[in-house]
Amino acid sequence: MSVWFITGASRGLGAQIVREALAAGHQVVAGARNPQHVAEQFGPSDALLPVALDVTDPGQVAAAVKRAREGFERIDVLVNNAGFSVLGAVEEISDAEALAMFEVNVFGVHRVTRAVLPTMREQRSGRIINIGSVGGFAAVASSGLYGATKFALEAISEALDLEARDLGIYTTVIEPGAFRTDFLTPQSMRLAATVIDDYAATAGAARTAFSTANGQQPGDPAKAARAILTLTDLEDPPIRLQLGSDSIARVQGKLARVADDLARWRHLGEATNFEA
């Protein structure tokens, strides 16, 4: 039995991970802006501790981690799931829209992780699961700034695993494709306030495709949650895990393009060294 600390736990993939973790016999600290939603959804349980958690509020983060230690004494698995997107071309996204995404998707993850790491270092064990996106590995039109937040999680996760693996703390960034959660609803996906007609055929078309795909996504969130549970039992977990055949295809395509560019242009890059 492990103690899980999950952010963004009231809906979507976060709620599904709570459900699967409880079903597997784990104890769960479920963080949400409105913890009552968690309590109503899952009912009373000695294994469940709903806590108020706005990841942009340092005071709430510290209090939630303190309650987790008081309630269950330890934290074995941290799932940084809270996040949202604003869709729009790079030029269409305002400063305020970009900052809001980074505050939740990047700084919120950093804030919660820093609060939990002292417990894991004390234990000399722990698993950190950062819910990224395939868009954090292979960007598409209309989600450049959202993808930038998830690209940032790739760097944070990769560095943290290098820094903390010797302490028994393993980090994995999850790269989901399209899963049938509420991520494409207005609760999680917003549209940029500015629309520029010149991008109608690129970012505009992608926005429309995202908006009409809700309920048609190929990924099963219950299976995604179970895959994440399996991941936390591995002795040598991967730094990245793609979930969904669409994610795997996009990552393979990106790797092929990078390999092609590297092969075609390495002579130009290598020519920049000082002469021996």
Structural class designation: alpha/beta
Radius of gyration: 20 Å
Oligomer: single chain
Portion of residues in helices?
40-55%
Listing every helix as H and every strand as E from the N terminus to the C terminus, the arrangement reads EHEHEHEEHEHEEHHEH
What does the largest sheet look like? 7 strands, parallel
Quickly count the helices.
8
- Poorly predicted regions: none
The outline comes out as globular
Kindly report how far apart the N and C termini lie: 59 Å
Strand order of the largest sheet: 3-2-1-4-6-7-9
Task: Characterize the structure shown.
The chain has helices spanning 12-23, 35-42, 58-72, 95-123, 144-164, 200-212, 221-232, 245-270, and strands at residues 3-6, 27-32, 48-52, 77-80, 85-87, 126-131, 169-176, 189-191, 240-243. It is α/β, with parallel strands linked by helices and 276 residues long. The strands form two sheets. A seven-stranded parallel sheet has the order 3-2-1-4-6-7-9, sandwiched between helices. It has a two-stranded parallel sheet with strand order 5-8. Helix 1 (12-23) packs across helix 7, helix 3 packs parallel to helix 4 (95-123) and helix 4 runs parallel beside helix 5 (144-164).
